[in-house]
């Protein structure tokens, strides 16, 4: 099975502050030069940043620990230690940072893609120049730097797309993505050819619509059956859903009910998203009547028919996708 890294548990550490220096000025003709120990440098921070060229968390798969640099110790003659370098961890858009033990969300990059400072480095310790006073002209006191922080976290990726394609294996999702967009997913005449989520961009006029094709669902997917359960989360952030019903399959009239029930079981929010239903493979004999039966069964749903092979309904489907992802597509 192809590797798709959408989860990673890592340990991150900010840098410790450098120690302050206890030193005294020693120069010719300056017998009592006084304290001259400088401060330690500040430890580096742990910073997460979004990189739009990243699509998975594969770069975190083989590196478990990320540590910022410690601050340098202070020196004589009032020399301050250098601050430690930050450790910057790049993530793809749509990432979540969770507590590894409780699962609680620490930071969500879905709406805000600014750099996020997760752990601050420790402050550097003071040198003895800070402790000179009228009653203590030669302080030998200096402070150690503050230690850094260590946390174990879970990083998750939830793909951000406008339209999520939902259907059983071999319903034609990958073929449609290939026809509408610049994506080139694996396509074959057997189930579960899609084993990782695929993204494509549909360009229509001055608008781009991002479409996500997830592995096909089967009945029981919300409980862990098949390949779909792990990837249901990837359509949780889509603006709308498109349900593909294979009109050549004898269970075409029950397919939508099974699919929507799996989504409801996984998350009520998924089932409440804007959606449309379209029957696929309308170029095959007898599918016209089946499409009419499907539309009659769901009079309150928008039902369309398409054929990737002949191009039937593709233009209308593209317009429907634009409508679903635009302001006019909002539910009342």
User: Which segments are poorly predicted (pLDDT under 50) over 5 or more consecutive residues?
Assistant: 183-195, 218-228, 328-332
Tell me the strand percentage band. 15-25%
Nearest-integer average pLDDT: 83
Count of the separate structural domains: 2
- Secondary-structure class: alpha/beta
According to DSSP, the number of beta strands is 14
Share of helix, binned: 10-25%
Q: Please, what is the CATH homologous superfamily of the largest domain?
A: P-loop containing nucleotide triphosphate hydrolases
What value does the Rg take, in angstroms? Answer: 29 Å
Shape: rod-shaped
- How would you spell out the order of helices and strands? EEEEEEEEEHEEEHHEHEH
Total number of helical segments? 5
Calculate the terminal CA-CA distance, rounded to whole Å.
Answer: 42 Å
Return the CATH architecture of the largest domain.
3-Layer(aba) Sandwich
What is the fold named in CATH at topology level of the largest domain?
Rossmann fold
State the name of the first-level CATH class of the largest domain.
Alpha Beta
Q: In which order are the strands of the major sheet placed? A: 10-11-9-12-13-14
Largest sheet: 6 strands, mixed
Structural summary, described in words:
This protein has 332 residues and is an alpha/beta fold. The chain folds into two domains: 158 residues, Distorted Sandwich (Spo0b-associated Gtp-binding Protein, Chain: A), CATH 2.70.210.12; 167 residues, Rossmann fold. Helices cover 15% and strands 23% of the residues. It contains five helices and 14 strands. The longest helix has 15 residues.
